[in-house]
Amino acid sequence: MNTLFQTELHRHLDVSLRPSTLLELAQKKGIESSSTSLQSFLNKLLIRKPMRDLAEVLASFQICQKVLDRPEVLERVAREVCEDIYAEGTRRVELRYSPSFVNEFHPELSWKDILSAFESGIREASQKLPGFKAGLICIISRDYGPEGAEKTVDFFLENRTRFVGLDLAGNEQEFPGSLFRRAFQRAKKQGAKITIHAGESAGPDAIWYAIEELGAQRIGHGVSAVQDPQLLQTLRDRQICLEMCPTSNWLTQVVPSLEAHPLPQVLRAGIPVCINTDDPTLFATTLPSETRVCIEKMGLSSSEVTLTQAHAQAASFL
Ligand SMILES: [Zn+2]
Question: Which of 8, 75, 200, 243 is catalytic?
């Protein structure tokens, strides 16, 4: 086996803002005036216990969206995210973002400007961080429907060399994979590397659809795979990596407790699994803290942790 770099595959760039920066930007924009300290801001922002419904966390998501309003800000955020990831010990990271999510409140900010700004922040950080490498994944947001997906695929294909892969994220229940078949078939024909958020709030059928019809080479979350032995066998046979995000899954009530997370079971069944932070700004996750969760709450051994790292490296689109 090659030297192991600490690698992370599933981290949302637009929800990885450093909290102190988020507070500073929000105060400057006048959208956060009630917090008197970073701590009181964190108390409002962070999701620390399983949420009751999505509406509860919408405000936290929206504050990230609202501050990402200018190229200078996006560049700074991307640079800081890379610095923070490096400080965690990670050397290879795939950062994903949704163009339509980022410019939802800022239609004047073009998708091209967003991409260029994120790239230049990453480039700036990479020049200072020895051995560090980051790539961008373009997300199609389910919630903007098939039309939004076609537009995003057009943008992705126009900028093929600037992204390492394509993803689908958002509301799985209301916007199933079947709505996006055409968009992903187009991307797949052009040789795109594809990962799909599936089996997070939906059952194993959503994972089947992602691998059979949408061309997924990796699955984001894939928690419900454990319900289907035949699916587990297919994931193992085809070595399709599950990018699992334990704390995220607990806080969004995909699993009833961290102890009940299926990560160890799936890993021990021979399926490539890796550990990920998902949305660090809201969940206060880091790769080391998520790894600790897997050891302390799920009983992963240190050799199993090393195995998850090897899986992340082998499945990376970088
Ligand atoms: Zn995610």
Answer: 200
Structure confidence by residue, pLDDT tens digits, 170-210: 999 999 999 999 999 999 999 999 999 999 999 999 999 99
Nearest alpha-carbon partner for 187 in 144, 155, 146, 157? 157
What the chain holds in terms of domains, given with CATH numbers, is 9-315 (3.20.20.140)
pLDDT at residue 110 greater than cutoff 90: yes
The model's confidence at residue 84, banded by pLDDT at 50, 70 and 90, is: very high
Residue 49 CA to ligand 1 center (angstroms) comes to 18
Q: What is the dihedral of CA 27, 30, 31, 32, to 10 degrees?
A: 40
How far does the centroid of ligand 1 lie from the alpha carbon of residue 246, in Å?
Answer: 11
Compute the distance from residue 9 Cα to the ligand 1 centre, in Å.
10
- Predicted confidence at residue 112, as pLDDT, reads 98
**How far, in Å, is the centroid of ligand 1 from the Cα of 36?**
31
| Residue 2 reports pLDDT greater than 80 | no
Q: Among 214, 133, 307, which residue's Cα sits nearest to residue 197? A: 214
Whether 24 is catalytic: no
Strand partners, 278: 11
